[in-house]
Amino acid sequence: MKPILVTGGAGFLGSHLCERLLSDGQEVVCVDNFFTGAKGNIQNLIGKSGFELMRHDVTFPLYIEIRQIYNLACPASPIHYQHDPVQTTKTSVHGAINMLGLAKRTRARILQASTSEVYGDPEVHPQPESYWGRVNPIGIRACYDEGKRCAETLFFDYWRQHKLDIKVMRIFNTYGPRMHPSDGRVVSNFIVQAIRGEPITVCGDGSQTRSFCYVSDLIDGMVGFMGTPADLVGPLNFGNPGEYSILQLAETVIRLAGTRSRIIFGPLPRDDPRQRKPDITLAEKTLGWRPKVSLEDGLKETITYFRHRLRP
Ligand SMILES: NC(=O)c1ccc[n+]([C@@H]2O[C@H](COP(=O)([O-])OP(=O)(O)OC[C@H]3O[C@@H](n4cnc5c(N)ncnc54)[C@H](O)[C@@H]3O)[C@@H](O)[C@H]2O)c1
Asked: What is the 3-state secondary structure (H, E, C) of 115-170?
C-alpha cells in the first residue's frame, strides 16, 4: 500500500493528523518547509515505523508515490501569513497546483484544508457552503483569503476537467495543543497572556463573535471526510457552531487558568470579521459529524499544554 502524504504535517493541525493516521495503521509521508511548523510537533513520530519526514516547499513540484494527499501546507495565523504575503499566495496557489499535479499523476485522492476565511467579512450568518463570501481582494488578509479561494477554484477545475478525486473542507477556527505560542491567534494569545499573568488584550470592545473547534473533533471530521464516497466533494464546513464573544472567551480563559490577569482593550485589526459561526448542517447530514468537545474541556487541555511548553 502506498503511503499518505500530509503537507504542512509539522504544523498544528498537520501534526495531529499525522499522529492520527499512524495510529490508524497508515503509512505517512510528512512534508513541511518548517515556516511555522516545528520538529518538536512531530518529535514523538520521528523514528516510528510508517512515518517519514521530508523537508520540502510545496511551491516546488514533488515527485513521490502516494495514494492520498491531505494538503495543509500554509501558514494559518494572520501574523505569519502577513509576514510574507507573496509567499503566502504562492503557497496556496502554486502549492495547490503542484499537489493537484501530483494527485493527477498518481491518481491519488486529495483533500484541501480550505478555510472559513473564504467567506471574508460575511453578510450572511451563520455561513452555509452556498454563500459566496465578501472578501476584500486588495486588503492585507487577501493573500490568505484569496489564495485559499483560488486554491478551491483549482480543486474544482481539476475535478471537472481531469476527473480528480477531490475533497474540499472549509475549516473554522480550531484550537488545541501545539498551536504556536506567538502566532497571535486569539486562543493561544489569551492563554499565553493568562499563564504569564500579563493583561489579556481584547481587540475592539470584544463583542465580535467566533466559534472554536477543538483539534481532535476537527481531525475526526477530516479523516471521516477523506473516507467518504467520491461523489461527496464539498465544500463542507467544519467547525464548532457554539458562538462566543471574544470577551466571553477572555473571561473563560482567565477563570480556567486561575490567573489575576486583567482585560485591556485595543484597536480592531483591519478587515476583521464581526461574526463567525459555521453552519455545519451539511457535514452533519452527509457524515454524521458533529464536534463533541466543549469549549471548557478543550481550553483546559490547551492550557495544560501551554503551561508545560512555557515552563522555564
Ligand atoms: N487552525 C485553524 O483554525 C485553521 C482554520 C482554517 C484553515 N486552516 C488551514 O489548515 C492548515 C493547517 O493550519 P494550522 O493551523 O495547522 O497552521 P500551521 O501554521 O501550524 O501549519 C501550517 C504548516 O504548513 C507549513 N508550510 C507553510 N508553507 C509551506 C510551504 N510552502 N511548503 C511546505 N510547508 C509549508 C508550515 O511550516 C506549517 O508546518 C492551513 O492550510 C490552514 O490554512 C486552519
From this structure: EHHHHECCCCCCECCCCCCECCCCCCCHHHHHHHHHHHHHHHHHHHHHCCCEEEEE
**CA-closest candidate to residue 202, choices 271, 248, 151:** 248
**Residue 69 β-bridge partners:** 5, 110
Q: How far is the CA of 76 from the centre of ligand 1 (A)?
A: 5
Mutate to test the pocket of ligand 1, among 6, 7, 43, 74 (most ligand atoms within 8 A of CB): 74
- Write out pLDDT tens, residues 269-281: 776 777 778 999 9
| CA distances to 209, 253, 267 from 17, in Å | 27, 26, 35
The pTM of this model reads: 0.96
pLDDT (average), residues 143-151 = 97
Instruction: Identify any residues that bridge with 71 across adjacent strands, giving them in sequence order.
Output: 7, 112
How many other C-beta atoms are found inside a 10 Å radius of the C-beta of residue 184?
13
Degrees to nearest 5, angle at CA 288 with 284 and 291: 70
Residues involved in catalysis: 144
